[in-house]
């Protein structure tokens, strides 16, 4: 969409961010109120291990887990359902989702806007690697500050 309307890159990134956060709140609600019904679906989808990892992150890191989940290639929906199941406070959840997703979507949209169609193919190919590298850099920063 950014390539079709490059002048609207930031509006498209904002729309994508807000839509993702709204979807995250739906996932949160599913986890909060319907974990018993959703857990078998997570298990059938082969995401039980990812769910368990995400749940342990909420016990230890709360807001920061959602912030980082918004940046990583780990399926975001697993984190949102897990946050609801862990009964994480709603406002830190929404704020963490918004900041993490905004960083990811604005970075992608901005890079596609600046570099054009040729770059998009490389970005799509390496977006997961970029996400893991960014996560690693943030983790190193947190360790360094502590």
How are the SSEs placed, and which strands pair?
Elements: H1 9-44, H2 48-61, H3 63-69, H4 76-85, H5 90-115, H6 117-145
Helix pairs in contact: 1-4, 1-5, 2-3, 2-4, 3-5, 5-6
Question: How many strands, what sense, and barrel or not for the largest sheet?
Answer: none
By DSSP (H or I, 4+ residues per run), the number of helices equals: 6
Rg value: 16 Å
Indicate the percent of residues in helices. Answer: over 70%
Q: What is the approximate shape?
A: globular
Total separate domains: 1
What is the terminal separation in angstroms?
A: 41 Å
Rounded mean pLDDT is: 85
Feature tags:
globular, 6 helices, single chain, mainly alpha, 146 residues
Task: Describe the protein in words.
It is a single chain. The protein is mainly alpha-helical. It has one domain (9-145). 84% of the residues lie in helices and 0% in strands. The longest helix has 36 residues, at 9-44. The model has no long low-confidence stretch (mean pLDDT 85).
């Amino acid at each position: 969409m950014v390539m079709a309307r490059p002048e609207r890159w930031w509006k498209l990134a904002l729309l994508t961010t807000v839509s993702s956060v709204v979807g995250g709140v739906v996932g949160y609600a599913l986890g909060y109120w319907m974990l018993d019904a959703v857990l078998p679906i997570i298990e059938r989808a082969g995401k039980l291990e990812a769910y368990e990892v995400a749940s342990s992150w909420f016990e230890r890191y709360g807001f920061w887990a959602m912030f980082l989940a918004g940046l990583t290639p780990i399926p975001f929906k697993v984190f949102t359902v897990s946050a609801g199941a862990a009964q994480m406070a709603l406002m830190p959840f929404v704020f963490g989702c918004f900041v993490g997703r905004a960083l990811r979507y604005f970075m992608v949209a901005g890079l596609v806007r600046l570099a054009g169609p040729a770059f998009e193919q490389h970005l799509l190919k390496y977006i997961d690697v970029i996400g893991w590298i960014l996560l690693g850099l943030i983790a190193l920063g947190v360790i360094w500050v502590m």
